[in-house]
Amino acid sequence: MKIVVLGGGESGVGAAYLAKAKGMDVFLSDRGAIRENYKNQLIEYGIAFEEGCHSEAEILEADWVVKSPGIPKKADIIQKIQAKGIRLSSEIEFASEFTEAKIIAITGSNGKTTTTSLIYHILKNDGLNVGLGGNIGKSFAKQVADHHYDYYVLEVSSFQLDDIQNFRPYISLLLNLSQDHLDQYNYDYEAYALAKFRITENQENDNFFIYNKDDEMSRHLLKRLSVRATTLPFSLKERPAQGGYADEEKIFVKLKEEFSMKIEDLSLIGKHNVANSLAASIAGKILNISNESIRNSLMTFQAVEHRLEEVAQINGVRYINDSKATNVNATYYALESMTTPTVWIVGGVDKGNDYSEIENLVKRKVKAIVCLGLDNQKIVDYFKDKKELLYEASSMEEAVRQCSDLAETGDTVLLSPCCASFDLFKNYEDRGEKFKAEVNKLKP
């Protein structure tokens, strides 16, 4: 069988490695430049590859094409592959064909990385033989080639789910839906939501689908779709008979035996993380993990880097890095979890943001705004009549210095940008690292 892999990043090189390990004829093609470390791996594995172009004739001879989730569906080469009827898959689809492990797959607009990492922590902490992959950590495919895990916890994007045929997780989770990446779905929110729901389309009645009962679009689509898996909701507003819910003080999971825990004992802060902790706990109970073990894991979990990550306390001011918040909905959750007057750093590459979603939270929680970006005009125009203290910065150094001057003892400085990072930074990680570096310079 001839396998062509499109994209020479972590998932692409991992998929090529697995194909080679299974004795397939493999060719990897990347229209851009392949990073040196991945190029060295391909040479070491003896995998034929090209960079800087796509050799169309070679690609269209494939029996199976595995594509990087970063390649848009509208790309010319993708259209030609589909027109020729060649099987087209994502790395998660490809790798899942070569493992008998139980897969726990997590998707959603926000909270995927945190919840995936939390579920992995719960399983690992209980002594289970488990791998972590998908959009997080090391390539799922490479782990399938090199290890024999009993479980995989995978963070899965809508782009990966667009390219599945048989992918069937034992447990799937859909955390929430909000308007993100709509440019890839013809600005159709429902089309994007339906892509997320593909996580459950191959599941059968011996599988489980965990979903957010408070999410309006999820409820709307569940009425129309035929989900065969056992559905288990979680909610912060209702009390489902089976699934999970929370009151002001505790979280509860009702499945087989009841599990409960004080919210104040959770290591993660904010209402959205109460929901994430509920979803993770339901997954733990499906896998028969003891209440004591789940409780211990929820208390000891360390927050994901760049997501509500506490950087330092300096002169009585808390500095929090939420650089991963690249849309308004993610920043909504961050602002909602603030309990002290907040100096808010916002800005970057706008993705069609509607700031009315967070207007009330900004009025209640934010004492000053620092706009960080090459073009701050949209944010300035929106908030200039709503906040007296509004400033602009064109570098992280300038932004952090302004925040330090504005913040008083007992305040919080929050980097939660609502926007992509590509105007001033390589990516959101680079933005978060530079924020942490500048904050650490403030230390006496």
Q: Which range does the strand content fall in?
A: 15-25%
Q: Going across the major beta sheet, what is the strand order?
A: 7-8-6-9-10-11-12-13-14
* Extended strand count: 20
Which regions are unreliable across 5 or more consecutive residues at pLDDT < 50?
Answer: none
Instruction: Summarize model confidence as the mean pLDDT.
Output: 94
Radius of gyration of CA atoms, rounded to a whole number: 22 Å
Distance linking N and C termini = 62 Å
Walk me through the structure.
This protein has helices at 10-21, 36-45, 56-59, 76-83, 91-96, 112-125, 140-146, 158-162, 189-197, 216-224, 271-286, 291-300, 328-336, 359-365, 377-383, 396-406, 428-441; strands spanning 2-6, 25-30, 48-51, 64-67, 87-89, 102-107, 130-134, 151-155, 171-174, 208-212, 230-235, 243-246, 250-255, 257-262, 309-314, 317-321, 342-346, 366-372, 390-393, 412-415. It has 444 residues and is α/β, with parallel strands linked by helices. The strands form 3 sheets. The protein has a 9-stranded mixed sheet. α1 packs parallel to α7 (140-146), α6 (112-125) crosses α11 (271-286) and α6 packs across α12. It is globular and about 65 Å long.
List keywords for this structure.
444 residues; alpha/beta; six-stranded mixed sheet; 17 helices; 23% strand; globular
Question: What would you say about this model in short?
Answer:
The protein contains 17 helices and 20 strands. By secondary structure, it is an alpha/beta fold.
Set down the secondary structure blueprint.
Layout: E1 2-6, H1 10-21, E2 25-30, H2 36-45, E3 48-51, H3 56-59, E4 64-67, H4 76-83, E5 87-89, H5 91-96, E6 102-107, H6 112-125, E7 130-134, H7 140-146, E8 151-155, H8 158-162, E9 171-174, H9 189-197, E10 208-212, H10 216-224, E11 230-235, E12 243-246, E13 250-255, E14 257-262, H11 271-286, H12 291-300, E15 309-314, E16 317-321, H13 328-336, E17 342-346, H14 359-365, E18 366-372, H15 377-383, E19 390-393, H16 396-406, E20 412-415, H17 428-441
Parallel strand pairs: 1-2, 1-4, 2-3, 4-5, 6-8, 6-9, 7-8, 9-10, 10-11, 11-12, 16-20, 17-18, 17-20, 18-19
Antiparallel strand pairs: 12-13, 13-14, 15-16
Helix pairs in contact: 1-2, 1-7, 6-11, 6-12, 16-17
